[in-house]
Structures
1.
Amino acid sequence: MAVYTDVTADDLTRFLADYDIGSLRSYKGIAEGVENSNFLVHTDTGNFILTLYEKRVAAGDLPFFLGLMEHLASRGITCPQPVKNRQGGMLGTVAGRPAAIVTFLDGLWIRRPTASHCAAVGEALARLHLAGADFKMKRANALGIESWRPLYEQAKARGDSVRPGLCADIDKELTTLAKLWPRDLPHGVIHADLFPDNVFFLGDSLSGLIDFYFACTDMLSFDVAVCLNAWCFEPDHSYNVTKGRALLKSYDKVRALEPAERAALPVLARGAAMRFLLTRLVDWLAVPDGALVKPKDPREYDRKLRCHQSVKSADDYGIN
Amino acid sequence: MAVYTDVTADDLTRFLADYDIGSLRSYKGIAEGVENSNFLVHTDTGNFILTLYEKRVAAGDLPFFLGLMEHLASRGITCPQPVKNRQGGMLGTVAGRPAAIVTFLDGLWIRRPTASHCAAVGEALARLHLAGADFKMKRANALGIESWRPLYEQAKARGDSVRPGLCADIDKELTTLAKLWPRDLPHGVIHADLFPDNVFFLGDSLSGLIDFYFACTDMLSFDVAVCLNAWCFEPDHSYNVTKGRALLKSYDKVRALEPAERAALPVLARGAAMRFLLTRLVDWLAVPDGALVKPKDPREYDRKLRCHQSVKSADDYGIN
């Protein structure tokens, strides 16, 4: 939950004067997003989300994120649409931070997804991959495999406080992943963070995708592997093959997975688990004992990683 | 900022089934309130605020708070109105917490109030006092003068870490306040926490009052003294007599202050400063070093208290 920057009514009124969405009626900081400050803004014409980009987001990446949302929306993906100002720009400044205003999406995120939710996510992810195919901008995955060893180096000194032996296990796994990592699978725009809190439902229907601030250009099947990790495990950290099968089959119906992509699923799933294990570990170690806001527990991804390491073949994910 | 309890879509859907406000379209935890968890809820019929009462709020006080909001709204005060469920009740349960849903108020709170905002607040406070006159329920002020020494005892061991000598000064002031504290001034319903973030404006007009969770039965003029502390100081902690005069004159036009209330203003202002100094001090000392969420700085009220101690008479507040 995050509001890092206080925004005054004057700041916001000044910013909105450059937009054609009516005058400000109210705004509230919302407890969502960990990288940016987010506000729900109510004007004469409706509800919007204002995002102030804090220092963890590189300002140079913002045109990619905003351009991508606009592109996807134009291709029929329901996602927040950046509102343009009178000069046609999507980026302004509020309280000294780069800021953008996007349309508000109705919908609820699902705390305990069922196989039917997983199927809906698989389909939406494949549609997103197809819709992104003709997006012209590129952005390297800042949390791709090249970043993992540097992240590990940050966590190494105190990583074993989370679990004795964790650091040696990560070190060994990173060496294995570097050897096995596929390089020539189909690339394109990936969401890279399509966790349940970034997918909205209304009733049983998926109603929208949000939070494109990790989106980048990488292997499409890595995005699938992120979703298997995020959607198809039970609270006891066991993989639920019924959910996995639902997600993979729905994906495959919209965008058929190539044989090489299917075969690579186990190593991609290990890599995806490693990516979230490492960022959670770094965040966990950065927060002092007793802090009011607890970051997410890295051990969840330690356990998921070990589950993937024991997989015999892609079939174990329910792909066939 | 506060969301202490995670609410699932299922929890909330189940809760709303008992209300006649349409079906759930979205909800977001909002970064407001320090005692409770608050959510902005959007249904087919509009926007609402859902509050989950956390353990710092005594469940036995909730009928007072909710009844008061309903009473004041019926007397023309613009404040959130509790929505009644199908049984006519205002209180339910969400995620194991007592919970209530109230109407959403448009409006913005003013970070840097002017004398004209202070005048509007003075008038609104007096109207609130008049509207509360025939409210039948009573609630003792849990943060009234009787609570101050026990709060001080909690903070005593480490209070001087905030300012050397602070504890001795508080101890001495508490003794003085106990001697000088008025007892027979007009009593009634007071808001007790009418800080700028609890007063909404639209344009130059005051559009509503929120957060009645410190409301209680106490001296009306103590509420005036809280507002003088909260609204009429500059960022350098100097008292702005123009703002004070604006607030007091507007109040007095709607509800004339009795001579004894006017005369008591300096000691009431000291008491009000002491109340916020003590609660901020206790909160400040309870949070570990380096925590992400910093409580409000108690030193602001230490400085205000010293300012009030140097006042010669009520005239210094701009009352005449």
2.
Amino acid sequence: MKKGKPLILVVNDDGIDSQGINFLKKIMCQIGDVYVVAPDTNRSAYSHSMTLNNSISIKKMNKNVNDFACSGTPVDCVKLALNKILPRTPDLCVSGINHGSNQSINGLYSGTLHAAMEANIQGVPAISFSHLSYETIINFTPFSSFIYDVSKKVLGDSNEGVTFNINFPDVPFKDIKGVKVCLTGQGVWKEKFELVKKEKFEKHFLIGGEFKSNNNLINTDNWALTNNFISIVPVNLYPHLSINLDKLKYLENVF
Amino acid sequence: MKKGKPLILVVNDDGIDSQGINFLKKIMCQIGDVYVVAPDTNRSAYSHSMTLNNSISIKKMNKNVNDFACSGTPVDCVKLALNKILPRTPDLCVSGINHGSNQSINGLYSGTLHAAMEANIQGVPAISFSHLSYETIINFTPFSSFIYDVSKKVLGDSNEGVTFNINFPDVPFKDIKGVKVCLTGQGVWKEKFELVKKEKFEKHFLIGGEFKSNNNLINTDNWALTNNFISIVPVNLYPHLSINLDKLKYLENVF
């Protein structure tokens, strides 16, 4: 490793073979020394889950390149990267680029965002990148300079306890109006369950569904993305500080 | 179902056979009509993960009792319960009692807390209960009246977007000093990785470790539990509101 060069960890949840992570890796190689540690297959919607009581394998993909495929969750990848693979604590962790939205409530399910959050817990500045298209091949090229610039900015910042959740709207790049730093907008999945098998006392379902969001509230990622802005939501690791605790003190009288 | 009786969903991540969920079910049966929908085996540390692209089975344990074992994650259990099992949206969801701490950063990994949060996303008042002991058999009995009373309070409240994360200290009940409504304290897992198998270019690890927390900050769950209080942390579904967005507006200039 060259002295003084930033050390960057690249992770995702779509798996080490996805287009998004390989595109992100190439940009990071222009900034610093890069290690890729990612799931060996798609592990979308793994959220902040980790593997207990089972072993996790980690495989170097090529002896000359620092790419590692992991049998565990996105969060397992980060834990192994920081403790067993990288030569020191990295200067930045970037996760993605996810194929699909992590706006609104989707971030709660996302392994991509939570991998970045896990790095942030360990004190590493962290960004999660997602594109609203769910296609396996996406034209990421126009976003290169934005990704490069925002990564360099966050690399130099001290935003302790904050992970940046960045989403790109699925519109032609020429129509993108700019960037909004904003809040997580409200949303919910209206699930549909396909009954795939039925036995006595037992049923088997496949979960699908449709994402419903409130896009009217200005200052939210839903609004920004609907109006062709890139959204940046700073996610706090300690999701409580905005609540008025005094209003809830009456619960202390229950005991 | 009797008219006017509350409908209550009971979930957990330790599995349908754990002592904690069966204890919680008994108390809830004193309050309303109860459905138990829980993982068929231990799924601790599954966080907010859900199952995509694989079917999930749901099995009625006994034709006369509303207990259902599910092959999916704790969040899958809640989604299936609300959409496919319960006769209507429940009036309350309680999760646990978890065998082990969900204080501090542990809540982020916890399937117990996130099952309650998933119900809350769907508009259901929700509480997660955890005991700091990791034993499979715990003396929960002294907590009965507190659990009954706090559940009745939350059942009647309107705290939209807030899930209550309640932890019991692992001390003799007579030493418990009361209840604190508080914030999530800071903490981190210092992991240890046991190398269980080594091949060319591939290693297999088991994750273990030790939880390190800052217990000095009054007004946090770490402080409350260390000082023999029951902790109640209101968790916000939208973990961003406490961040000063204006300070981060410079990132909008990157584009």
3.
Amino acid sequence: MAIVVNLEEERGKKGPSLDALTALVSDDLAKVNTTIVDRMHSPVELIPQLAGHIIAAGGKRLRPMLTLASAKLCNHRGPRHIKLAACVEFIHTATLLHDDVVDESSLRRGLASANAVWGNKASVLVGDFLFSRAFELMVEDGSIQVLAILSRASSVIAEGEVLQLITANDTSTSEDSYLEVIRAKTAALFAAACRIGAVVANRPKAEEAALESYGLNLGIAFQLIDDMLDYSAKQEKLGKAIGDDFREGKITLPVILAFRRGDDEERTFWRRNLEELDQAEDGADLRHAIGLMEKHQSLLDTINRARHYGAIARDALGIFPDGPAKSALTDIIDFCIDRAF
Amino acid sequence: MAIVVNLEEERGKKGPSLDALTALVSDDLAKVNTTIVDRMHSPVELIPQLAGHIIAAGGKRLRPMLTLASAKLCNHRGPRHIKLAACVEFIHTATLLHDDVVDESSLRRGLASANAVWGNKASVLVGDFLFSRAFELMVEDGSIQVLAILSRASSVIAEGEVLQLITANDTSTSEDSYLEVIRAKTAALFAAACRIGAVVANRPKAEEAALESYGLNLGIAFQLIDDMLDYSAKQEKLGKAIGDDFREGKITLPVILAFRRGDDEERTFWRRNLEELDQAEDGADLRHAIGLMEKHQSLLDTINRARHYGAIARDALGIFPDGPAKSALTDIIDFCIDRAF
């Protein structure tokens, strides 16, 4: 696809990676994984089976790693961040299970999604279980402040998901409404995951706020790129089908920009495809949509918007001293954005 | 239906009611209702709309009333039980929303269910919102002990729902497996709702345990009668369609008893109807099923089993002094069982 080649040329050869982060938190992450496997256990065997399928499916563990790296940045000593990082992953997994039901997805990270294998019912209920289990883990940790942060994040996520449901198939959705959705459904958990690192380390409010701001803006950048990738990356690379959002009529930034920059004929095209979901079965409409996005630079500008939020995230870390933790957290920003290429 | 008449004769004329309970907690319940309306608010309007539909649909508010009456029994002074009773109702409502999605129900308390009006997606997400909001309310209350009780109850409920999903359509399900399901999916929240009344009042562990035991056994009795009513009460009275469980192939105690007491021909009938879901569309199979239940007294014995758990619940209250709260709580037991008639 032309866009990929152009962008490849634009930046250098060797892309940023999560290597520094992985090295920084690998011992802790192994403990988080053990905690996850341990605590998703239930005498009802279907629960660890289904939960294990999605948790083991090879997600990046980005959110729990954010908690671990943030705790490290704050010089946290002690074991509390391990359990709380597992909580964050449980909440994330619960929302994935419910998302796949809501989106009627059949693929997740390149594998059959849990709802495709075990049905929607089991996915809803195991999601509820993981969500409850997350709160049980927080209770064991015993911090009302952490409970406040994650219960608030959880209702914000749910609000964001409902808002997304309402704006689906509405091509008049503004960039601001879209931002409100991704801020809630994605960035709120990134923000909470990072803030918890400062909370367990008993750092001053300013550092809590800095890590929250880092997480929030990183989360926005992450979701922008995710939405851009749905129109550009290869399915194998991403582990999910290209054009999913298009087929569901999701209104993401690449669409919003192309719609606003297009002429009447193009808007009629977008309405037919995304509002009426009247789409050519041979993929011709998807190819045409990508063509319009290239014409209006809406994929490139989605990346540019992501860079803006990435820059805010980077500056938010400014108050922390340089070192391996700060540098790993900075690398995540570049990784989240540059995985677009 | 013959069973109704027989049972009507068996007991007296004027049945027990929730009147004493309602009188006892009416001021508090009004505050709980205000809290519920207040706290299901969200800038995303669909959330209070959908949540309001199910919450306002005229449920009995049995679970929050249990918290209120238990707090009264424990001489609790102060406002904490109000917010926590609202939490209990939020958790209950969240599970109802997810249940209706899982059961594909189109009716709830005689009205169209939320999933029938707004779709499964919105029901899943608003359920998640109410669940998160419940935890936010608990965090405001600030008691780790309450958080522990309700987060544990929530995962037990989810486990019970998954277990029910697994045993659905399996006529070999034992009475014990069935009991395990209803203990988890229904009784655990009754138990938690009651126990919280002792916790807010800082009562000794023995009283906490007594109220928990009362709630657990009351919850089992309640669900037994609920499952019995699906084969006997009039739809209008119950606000839901008779034979729902039959059509879905749910294995409840009336079925388990009739199946075990039946002959080979009858078991073939049960398997065809509940495992293969091969059922006559004119309701003839449902009528035949009810006939078999009458033949084997399986509805009557389901009530008898409920009486057994009701008796345990009654004795659990023995350590508390007599008075209006204790008497109201005792009335609930009779009401839950005698609504069978």
4.
Amino acid sequence: MQAAPLARLPRARYKPGMRFSRSYIPTLKEPPAEAQGVSHGLLIRGGYMRKLAAGIYSFLPLGWRVLAKIENIIREEMNRAGALELLMPAAVPAELWQESGRWDAYGPELLRLQDRKGAHFCIGPTHEEVIVDLVRRDVRSYRQLPLNLYQIQSKFRDEMRPRAGLLRGREFIMKDAYSFDVSEAAAKQSYQAMYDAYGRIFARCGLEFRPVEADTGAIGGSLSHEFQVLAESGEDAIVACDNCEYAANVEQAELAREEATKPERKFGALEKVATPGRRTIEEVSAFLGVPAAQLVKTLIYVADGTLVAVLVRGDHSVNELKLKKLLGSREIFAAGDSDVETATQAPVGFAGPIGLSLPIYADLEVRNLANFVVGANQADAHFRNVNVGRDFRTTAFEDLRMAAPGDPCARCQGGTYKGYRGIEVGHVFFLGEKYSAPMRCTFLDERGAEKPMVMGCYGIGVTRIAAAAIEQNHDASGIIWPMALAPFQVEIVVDQAVPECVAAADEIHAGLERAGVEVLYDDRDQRMGPKFKDADLIGIPLRVTVGKKALAEGAVELKHRRAPEAERVARADAVRKVAERVRAELAAA
Amino acid sequence: MQAAPLARLPRARYKPGMRFSRSYIPTLKEPPAEAQGVSHGLLIRGGYMRKLAAGIYSFLPLGWRVLAKIENIIREEMNRAGALELLMPAAVPAELWQESGRWDAYGPELLRLQDRKGAHFCIGPTHEEVIVDLVRRDVRSYRQLPLNLYQIQSKFRDEMRPRAGLLRGREFIMKDAYSFDVSEAAAKQSYQAMYDAYGRIFARCGLEFRPVEADTGAIGGSLSHEFQVLAESGEDAIVACDNCEYAANVEQAELAREEATKPERKFGALEKVATPGRRTIEEVSAFLGVPAAQLVKTLIYVADGTLVAVLVRGDHSVNELKLKKLLGSREIFAAGDSDVETATQAPVGFAGPIGLSLPIYADLEVRNLANFVVGANQADAHFRNVNVGRDFRTTAFEDLRMAAPGDPCARCQGGTYKGYRGIEVGHVFFLGEKYSAPMRCTFLDERGAEKPMVMGCYGIGVTRIAAAAIEQNHDASGIIWPMALAPFQVEIVVDQAVPECVAAADEIHAGLERAGVEVLYDDRDQRMGPKFKDADLIGIPLRVTVGKKALAEGAVELKHRRAPEAERVARADAVRKVAERVRAELAAA
């Protein structure tokens, strides 16, 4: 049978369109003083959001529509992958976090509070503990598995330095999913299903992105991918092979283990040179006329309260994750100025290994250098023609650096890493038994044996996607939304002073609404100039302009936000052409 | 043109149906020990939710679907009424609440917290301050008004005694809307539009409800209606006239100001009688054989630290709101036992006005009594044949009682109040300038004069609707969902042991999905008995049973959850008949 669908399936039925005059889109001429970065400024100027407190924003109707579109794409793909939506509370009792050990481990980003009776709670930044507690109480048998449960929820992380609007906020919307399986093999399948779903989600959002191998961080587990939206403003550095599929966060990227290259060991005479006021690699390199790769940086770290020195080549960066693993430390961070000055007996900027009485860990690449440059542990001085062994000794040579563009690929023969900047919008983790074993989330297998479930967890930053889309899609005039995320698909701009234009625009508006196109109809009693400015700022992908001159010739103007010029289309064709373009652009994503 | 709607309007596209074997519906045989009331127990037993902490629940997939349906009905009707959806943060800086004065006034139900830098926040239980702050920054002109802005959000109120599951929780989902107008007349129109939208929302939810006049409470303002779902288990007492439209919360209900009835003043002799152990109205009434209406209760209150006595007839209740207004107190509450014992020199239960050295406020109805009974301020004793004036004096006679069933209507001639119990699911408030004046939320009118906006605010308890629907619609076996709120519209129960039954059920399942009907397909490898038990508990309105015997005769069974018996329908007609019934039941709401 072919009955029409029933009227009230559980979906939010939005008015497809809105009249600008009856909406609430307070655009601003200037970005607010505190705006950091493109998306932050444009979201505020475009009337998408307003700041309530540091890293905490109200989403105005336009912003809310963008979030709803992102959420619905996520929902559709999660449901398609067999995940089930639920909703856990924001307030989580401390007991559960104490049971997992995260109450003490999580640090000050966890927003903690007490209720009126003095009971301790946190506002859950992720919900592993809550979902494990649910599942361990209600799931007993292998027959009830696999399960993949997800929610879309406002989360809170009390960032020390919230920045750049939605890119690093304190209150933000996240989709978090958790899978439960009977075995590692089954759990890897669940992981792969989420990996695939994430690819579909970000593609449908119209984003240029890349899945990269990543560190498992505070969540834990043994396998992890980040989904990075590529944008120059991205906070994360990524390397990707130009020959094979390998891509990774620089923190995680593998380095090819080459043999030491045995530099020719014609040691020059150690020489102290004056480098007045030259502290950075760039300054010293320029002043001495020595390439950065021939300099060696000496960095002082505090590892669980003890000072250590780390040497890496001037063009490399220390990988703190590797250092932490090497030292087996609970916490490491770069030493403050006063610690550096005490250890080196010199101002900051002139640290070096010669005569330094700290454990010295040197990156493997330092072993390949001869006659390099280091700081002299003395103000305004460096050493040149420095050589390991002759001039100082190291505690150990280890792989201690980040991968860098130009490094040979660790996975394939012959590829080279290229560098990218990315914004992390999704992260999938293979957790194994990290939570299920300590929290006794077990099941009975076919033979009646009790086993811990094997878990994965999967996050998407809903609010961050909105910002990342703008970082990737904008110009000097404003936002250029991908069709799937735009708050409306089409904006009609009409010359409100001309009754014939208003009549034609009304007709096109009605036609587009009948065709199911979402229209923002700028019917404000304003001149065309400010309307165009607002349209460019707001960034709706297609604009239909109904002006006096074209209309007199039976035409209206159609312009894609990305195109330099508008084109004329016959008034009678406008609705059909616009609807076709909307469809085509959605289908292309 | 008649093109099909575009594929990706911003609506959540759920899978219409679900297989029980692949879902997560952990039903329980017994309600948990802590369950209070019908909906609390059934929501947990039916696998709709689980408790995380007192008054804090996780919504499992079935529960989430019910909430999504409620939210979407609310969205559609709010949008239809011209309101615009947005989303404000949960964490609200203390400064805004200090500006409105509510930071001090709100009391311990406000969940307060500090961030890592020591800044004070609350988790906003309502958002008047945040929305006023938004609007005052961006709206300047009468041309930008009216505005009605709403959100659907998880809220937190730190209730002293969370109870009965979703009926009085601590974390709950609320729709809150705020209107801004240029004048009182325009604001009254916005109020009326919301009043009307609320009627449509609760009707579409399939609820039997009643709008009643209400107190404005802590929100403030001058006009207010509650929307009460009628249910015996309701926490709120309501009176409604049997002759006119008037209905009100008993706290707010007006009383007809009748002339004092001048009782015949044949005073009997004051007599002290022994009433050993009889303390309550019921006990004294039964022991002395005197109707409750001939007894007078003496209640001791603490009004801003001072004790006062209040007299009302034995069958009436003190209206604390009226008492508070009369005394002009900031806070009143019933005195504790030790205060009562000190004031009356007697154990609790024997207080009376004779010889009492407190201000005595008596309800007007007490004036109409002669020869009544009061406590003797002495253990195990009451007075009878008591008369005001002769035996004691009052400080004042005032209207101090709640309305009660049987009272004459205050609005019409000749009607009488009937009593109901209700669950408050919505509340509309006319706020006037209560927030806009102190927070300087102003606009410029046509003549350029600056005026405060005139506001209203409008709440709906999303989670409470789910519970109220169950309180109103259940039987001994479980829930009976209204069609519009049911997590699925139809459940198919199949005899999994019989391959022909499975084939027929698969076919009907596919047909219903094609017809857009939402189906829960119980394909579990279980006997029919437990499947029926679960189906009754979960409460999906229509059930299709595919069993061996009926199928052999070319039929399946169709049963409404409310009907005592199933009926047979031809297998070939099943899909059409079921789809028709779903449509009919949705249309009837």
